[in-house]
């Protein structure tokens, strides 16, 4: 493997306790987008679903709610600690009858089962060859089945109006971190090309940005916890932190105060969903 693919294949954000907390916080904000993309893609009751890079299980749980007790969801995840956490959450959340998590690497996972749908959120960009991986994984979908991917874009340089400097500066750190690892911060916008390079039909796409600013808005915890979780990686990558910004538990409140002062509308990341239905002869 090249150095770049080495760096990519180690999941960028790691599996620290702070990162797990960030994923859980993120999951609640991101959930409506995922529900929308999965439903629009055609996920229905009774389907069998393969969720790639299942992490703590949130996408698998959404899929389980859609397919219902007559359906089945298999989550694939490489990190044993995440698989354990996802299994506990499945038990606690009452999903265990529908969802199963397997400790597996997407690059060499194999099965004879053919699924009705392949789903994935925030995972393709971490793989050394996203299109190659998608092509291989789509091979586990039956003819007429669905492939749906949810990714995002954190590259927007203009995420507040009127400009709120600390918001823009903190947001820019997320894009800088992706770039420092050779990962596209706007990967969501690459999805059409990745589907086509994978030999899949031209996908339908949908997108929308997390938006807020009102006191109490969820966006403050989202950005504060994200920056806090990635701070050690930023330092490691030599990305300078904005001057005068304390990256600790006080950051979300500080962001909120600054946005109240500038009376801004602020944007979070932009979410992209892309989906395609496989043909009955090959993929087209
Ligand atoms: C950003 S997390 C997203 C988790 C989940 N899809 C979600 O949206 O909540 C990406 C996950 O993909 C997993 N992952 C990355 N590369 C993988 C690989 N080659 N095989 C299996 N899992 C992988 C990581 O360990 C991580 O848990």
Automatic annotation (TrEMBL):
Kindly give the Pfam families that the UniProt entry links to this protein: Methyltransf_31
Show where the Methyltransferase domain sits: 44-153
InterPro entries found in the cross-reference section: Methyltranfer_dom (IPR025714), SAM-dependent_MTases_sf (IPR029063)
Q: Which UniProt keywords apply?
A: Methyltransferase, Transferase
Quote the CDD domains the UniProt record gives: AdoMet_MTases
Which is an annotated GO molecular function term of this record? methyltransferase activity
Q: What's any GO biological process attached to this entry?
A: methylation
From what superkingdom does this record's organism come?
Bacteria
Protein known as: Class I SAM-dependent methyltransferase
Q: Which organism is it from?
A: Actinomadura syzygii
């Amino acid at each position: 493997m090249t150095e770049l693919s080495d760096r990519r294949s180690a999941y960028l954000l790691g599996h620290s306790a702070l990162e797990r907390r960030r994923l859980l916080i993120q999951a609640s904000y991101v959930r409506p987008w995922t529900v929308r993309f999965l439903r629009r893609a055609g996920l229905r009751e009774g389907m069998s679903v393969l969720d790639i890079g299942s992490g703590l299980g949130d996408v698998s749980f959404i899929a389980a709610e859609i397919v219902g007790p007559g359906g089945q969801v298999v989550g694939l995840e490489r990190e044993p600690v995440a698989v354990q956490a996802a299994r506990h959450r499945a038990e606690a959340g009452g999903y265990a009858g529908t969802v199963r998590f397997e400790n597996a690497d997407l690059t060499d996972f194999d099965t004879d089962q053919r699924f009705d749908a392949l789903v994935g959120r925030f995972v393709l960009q971490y793989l050394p060859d996203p299109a190659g991986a998608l092509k291989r994984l789509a091979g586990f979908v039956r003819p007429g089945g669905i492939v749906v991917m949810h990714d995002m874009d954190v590259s927007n340089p203009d995420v507040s109006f009127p400009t709120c400097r600390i918001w823009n500066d903190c947001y820019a750190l997320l894009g800088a971190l992706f770039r420092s690892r050779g990962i596209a911060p706007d990967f969501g916008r690459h999805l059409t090309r990745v589907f086509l390079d994978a030999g899949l039909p031209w996908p339908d796409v949908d997108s929308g940005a997390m938006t807020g600013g009102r006191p109490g808005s969820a966006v403050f915890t989202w950005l504060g916890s994200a920056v806090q979780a990635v701070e050690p990686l930023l330092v490691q990558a030599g990305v300078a932190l904005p001057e005068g910004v304390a990256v600790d538990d006080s950051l979300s409140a500080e962001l909120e105060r600054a946005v109240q002062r500038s009376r801004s509308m602020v944007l979070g990341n932009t979410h992209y969903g892309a989906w395609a239905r496989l043909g009955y002869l090959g993929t087209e």
